[in-house]
């Protein structure tokens, strides 16, 4: 079973940056589409960014131009670079690997944007 472990969350001031990492237990990037989702306080989980097996990235409108999803094939790691953070970005961030109807989720990492 594929295991995903997120890291890199924390407390950051508005306007700051963070880079989230998702360590994957197997070499799956050639077969699995990858993504980052988040669950803001009191809200449902929402898509942040997706990365296809072909390397095509898509972003939620709320993060376009500020966040970048990328992957390191050699180290089986997915990243989310987050810049110009605002309090609205406060959420638990989750990594997802999906192949057809099979989804694997990480445990999440908390990001809090506050002064």
Please give a structural write-up.
It contains no helices and 11 strands. The termini are far apart. The model has no long low-confidence stretch (mean pLDDT 96). With 115 residues, the chain is an all-beta fold. The strands form 2 sheets. Strands 2, 4, 5, 6, 9, 10 and 11 form a 7-stranded mixed β-sheet that branches. A 4-stranded antiparallel β-sheet has the order 1-3-8-7, with no helix packed on it. Strand 5 (46-51) and strand 6 (57-59) form a beta hairpin.
Which helices and strands occur, and which strands form pairs?
Elements: E1 4-7, E2 10-12, E3 18-24, E4 33-39, E5 46-51, E6 57-59, E7 67-72, E8 77-82, E9 91-99, E10 102-105, E11 109-113
Parallel strand pairs: 2-11
Antiparallel strand pairs: 1-3, 3-8, 4-5, 4-9, 5-6, 7-8, 9-10, 9-11
Secondary structure: number of strands? 11
Which secondary-structure class do the elements indicate?
mainly beta
| Uncertain residue segments | none
- Please count the helical segments: 0
Summary tags:
115 residues, mainly beta
Q: Concise description?
A:
The protein is mainly β and 115 residues long. It has no helices and eleven strands.
